Structure formats: C-alpha cells, structure tokens
Amino acid sequence: MTGFEISRLDFRAEAVRDWAASNALRTNWPVVYVLDGRSDEARSSEVEVYVGETLNAQARLRQHLESRTKSAMRSVRVIVDEEFNKSAALDLESFLIRHFAGDGHFRVANRNDGVVDAAYFDRAKYQESFEAIFEALRAEGLFTRDIAAIENDDLFKLSPFKALTAEQTEAVEGIMRVVAERLLTQEDCTVVVRGAPGTGKTIVGVFLMKLIADLGAGDAVDQNAENESPLSSLFSSEDRVAYTGLDVGFVIPQQSLRRSVQEVFRRTRGLSASQVMSPFTAAEHTGTFDVLLVDEAHRLNRRASQPSGPLNKQFGEINQKLFGEDDFTKTQLDWVTAKSRIRILLLDERQSVMPADLPRDDVMAVVAQAQREDSYFELQTQMRVRGGRDYVEHVRGLLDVSTPMSTLEARSRIRATDYEIRFFDDIRALHDAIRARDREYGLSRLVAGYAWEWKSKNDASAMDIEIDGYGLQWNRTAVDWITSAGAIDQVGSIHTVQGYDLNYAGVIIGNDLKMDPTTGRLVGVRESYFDKRGKQNNRLLGIEYSDDDLGRYIADIYGVLLTRGVRGTYLYVSDPGLREYLQRTL
C-alpha cells in the first residue's frame, strides 16, 4: 500500500486555497500534514515541526494560519492516500511525531496529550506505507537518520511523545487528578508510582513533565472537535487553571540518565534542561517547587559517604539550611519533601543497589502512606523485555538471597517466549555474539557486576576484566556510555546502564555472587566485590553492613543487569554452581 502523495506548498492562505480547490480529497478526506519553520515560540536558532491529522485539510490549515503560534511556520507538506481512513491517519500522525522527536533535527511543536496507538482493521498493511512516507520526507530533509538509528537513540526512547499503554494512561489520568486537586486546595501531597524494571516509570515521568507544561501554556487552536488524543479531555477541564505558572522540576539521582533526559528536555518545547537536576541542585533551589518529580527515587541517598569530599560537605550544609542543623537522620527524600508542595516519586525498592541508597523500609513506608492517601499507582505491564513480566519476576525470584535455591526452583515458573537467553562458557564467544547482535540490531553491550577492579581509571592501557586470557576494560565514560564511541568493546557497570534499554545485554556475572553448596543459597562475596562505596560501612550513622546485606545489594545489581535486554540476554557466569543453577532454571 504505497499510493500516497505528498504535496508541498508555502504556508500562505492563497497557496492553501489554490491547492485545496484542485482536489475534493483536500477538503473531505483523512490526511496528515507537517508544518515546518520558526513559530513565534521557537528560539531564533530552532526550526520546528508540527504534525497534525484532519478530515478537512483546507479548514484545518486555515485555523493554523489564524493562530499566533503557528502562523509563522514556513511551509506545509500534506500526505494524502486514497486508501487511508481516519484510524490510519491517526496512526501515521503518531508515527511521525515520535520519529521527529527521536531524530532531534527539529523541535516538535505539538502539545503532549498522548499519541494514538489504537488497533484497527488491516493496521499492519497500512503501516507498510509509513516507512515509504518517512523516506520521502527524509529525502526532502525533514529527517536526518533512518528509522532504525532513530529508534535506538535516547531521544526516541526517552521522548515525551510516547504511545502510552492503557495502564500508563490510566495512571497519568489518576496522577493528574490528584495533582490538580491538591494544587487547587493548596495541600501537601506525595504521589508514588511503583513498577518493576521495564514498566515505563521514566517514560511516565517525562510524559508528565511535558503534559504539565502544556496544560500550563496550551494552544487554543488545538481545541478542535477532531481531537481524539487519549488525554485531550484534560485540556478542556476546568482544573487546567491549576497548572498555570507552576515551578516544576525533575530530579534524577544517576548522572548518566540525568544527562540523557536533559538532552531530551533541551529539544522539547515547553521544557528546559535546567529543570532536570540532581538532588543537590533541587535542594539548593530558590523557593519551593509546586511539583517535583523524582525518577529512580529509591536511589536517593541517606547520609553516607558521597562520591567526593565537596558533596559530603554540601550534604551537611543543605541539612543545616533546610532543618536548622546537620541532622544525620535526614535523607535526600527529606530534602525533596521540604522543597516541594507536591512530589511524584517513581520507584522500585528492588533497584536500590548501594548502601547509601534509601533504606528499603523507608521506601516502603512512603509506599504505604501513598496507598492510605489514594495517591499510589502501580505499573505492571512490561514495556521493555520481550520475555514480559514473567521473565522479570522469574529473574527476581531466582536472585532472592534469603531463600534456598530448592524453594525458589519449586515456586518459580516462566512461560516460553521469543526472548533469547543464551549461556556462554567462553568469554570471547560471548563478546563475539554481542558484536554480531550490535551489527544486526544496534545497542548491544557487555555489562557486568563490580567483580573486578577499575585499573584502567588510572592506567588507560590496563585490562580490568581478565578471564581465560581475554582482557576487557570498564566503560571509559560515566555519561552516555551506551551510545559512546568504542562502547561495544567496553563493559558497562550498574552506574552506566540503570534506567536504559539495550537490544541485547551480555551479562558477565563475576565471583562477587556465588551459590553456597552447603546452604543452597546465593551469597555475596565481599572480597570479590570492588565497588568501595558499595560495601563500606556507614560511620556517620553507625551502621555496619553484614555479608547478608551485601549479598542482597549484589543480587539486586544483577537483577537490574539481567533486565536491560529488550530482545535477549546472554550470560557468562564465573561460579560453576551458580552457572549450573541458572542454566537449569533459565
């Protein structure tokens, strides 16, 4: 199905009128159009695109010409196909919005009321033409990369223009209802969004930031009867007034993920990279946030040794400023609470991987409070791993250090899927397989637990991970490592991959996690775990971490690594007992 036509015309009233007069389909047929140029809201250096669909192209384009925000656009391309129906047009509109946002060449001027991802008759047949339409627009300079390259980029994966699942849409609607009510009544509130790896917590957080920004600004011309976006009703609600003029921030504890989201915000209308900050930056913010979102909230710190001396000093200074004294019991969650009227915490207690992270009991107390106050939302649908929720829960069950292996095997089940799990006895073969998957699909990387010293940090020629005479180095950058040059020949750690997707993950499980043949339990091995901050005792709080505590952190790290791969996970396991157990159960 490739019988489409793309008409390009200057975005002027007379050009639109003359174009529409020559064909009846241009006033009474489902079409998709793309405006490009510099709108009144664009910065001087930015070119924007706006994608829309309509049953009456002439009337809709006339509306845009009368709009202050769209009238400055330069040109319009209208895509007409005699076999299109309304559903196909909505689907193409969503496809183009998502790929424009992921390409990053233009800034997308659409508001974020949710893109349509609905099933309809013969959808697969219609979608065959989308790639041809994409390539035709690419030939005219509207895209700079092919579809595969765009879809492997963080700009696409972390874009606010995502087709939410029904579960995510329901959660967003519920969150916005709670937030609007509390803003109008000026009540303090904590909202919790909880979900396992791959359920889309970060996507929901980014989506909410854009949605709140658009509700506070909006474009009156977009209030039209044709609008069938999933969340369009929010823009006509009387509660919309609550979002005007808000001070909104987005806290991300991990540096690498924070940088990636900042780049997305930098390229998104209504958002700013400065809104994405560390817990320290948020705590130093002048004034109080109306709404403060926190992604990976389980990675907020308690008072413990920080990565640098200046941060240790700053932690105490912030406590003094916010609470009148350097109270060692105060955590970064207390900072977030003190600096915001409404906070939205995106969390998963099983992804706390460092002793400095919030204690699991503290996280669960916040969850319980939100449940009591009807501000708790849970995401269960697996959006990343093709093995689905069954695979994620299975892996988490197998890595429960508190339970004997025999019990775990008896209660753990996984249904057959097209998810690819392979074990390797040769580290070279594992690396070769990951290279092959990277050539085929892109974004395939080696990752490992912190079972080897980071020698190359001080000696660029040193090998960090040496197995059977084969040498590998840890990631050479802590920021955006996955997409960095040379990443395919390096090994990422938990600090560079948590929060990201890979197509294939080659997971190296070192001797920091073994199976005790006597007790039949997984155990962490302190002397084989080389993350200094990951195993040091907390002198400030007088906490000593037992081997059992350490084992839980190490097992949870591997739980994160084993749930990064979208298409598959390849494993090399150092401990023979653990390797045999995982081969038998996976």
UniProtKB/TrEMBL annotation:
<dbReference type="InterPro" id="IPR000305">
    <property type="entry name" value="GIY-YIG_endonuc"/>
</dbReference>
<feature type="domain" description="GIY-YIG">
    <location>
        <begin position="28"/>
        <end position="111"/>
    </location>
</feature>
<protein>
    <recommendedName>
        <fullName>GIY-YIG domain-containing protein</fullName>
    </recommendedName>
</protein>
<dbReference type="InterPro" id="IPR018647">
    <property type="entry name" value="SLFN_3-like_DNA/RNA_helicase"/>
</dbReference>
<dbReference type="Pfam" id="PF09848">
    <property type="entry name" value="SLFN-g3_helicase"/>
</dbReference>
<dbReference type="InterPro" id="IPR027417">
    <property type="entry name" value="P-loop_NTPase"/>
</dbReference>
